[in-house]
Amino acid sequence: MEPGRRTRLLALAKKYPTLSKEKQERIQQRLHHWATLSPEERAKARERWKKIQSLPPKEREALQQKWLEYDQLPEEHKDQLRSNPPQQK
């Protein structure tokens, strides 16, 4: 494990007991999901995250707004979008 990731994970482990139950559950769910990804999928996720972090603040806000709009959609519509994703520019 890379030193930066190790440091962040250890810091999270240190403050974990003081977090609310909801935050602890969220962390557990995210870690479980992350553990199910293949190394290639993890690398791809890290690259997407780096790309998003390098965007200008206004573009990041717009992206976050799109995500919130997507999150509000009914599951049927989300399934439809997953099976037939829009073409990226």
Structural class: mainly alpha
The total count of helices amounts to 5
Mean pLDDT: 91
* Helical residues, percent: over 70%
Largest sheet: none
Proportion of residues in extended strands: under 5%
- Coarse morphology: globular
Low-confidence stretches: none
Q: What is the terminal separation in angstroms?
A: 34 Å
Number of strands: 0
Order of helices and strands: HHHHH
Number of domains: 2
Radius of gyration (CA) equals: 16 Å
Brief sketch in words of this structure:
The protein has helices spanning 3-15, 21-36, 39-53, 57-72, 75-83. The chain is mainly α and 89 residues long.
Any key phrases for this structure?
mainly alpha, 5 helices, globular
3D structure, described in words:
This protein is mainly α and 89 residues long. It folds into two domains: 1-36, no CATH class; 40-83. 78% of the residues lie in helices and 0% in strands. It contains five helices and no strands. It has helices spanning 3-15, 21-36, 39-53, 57-72, 75-83. The longest helix is centred in the N-terminal third of the chain and has 16 residues, at 21-36.
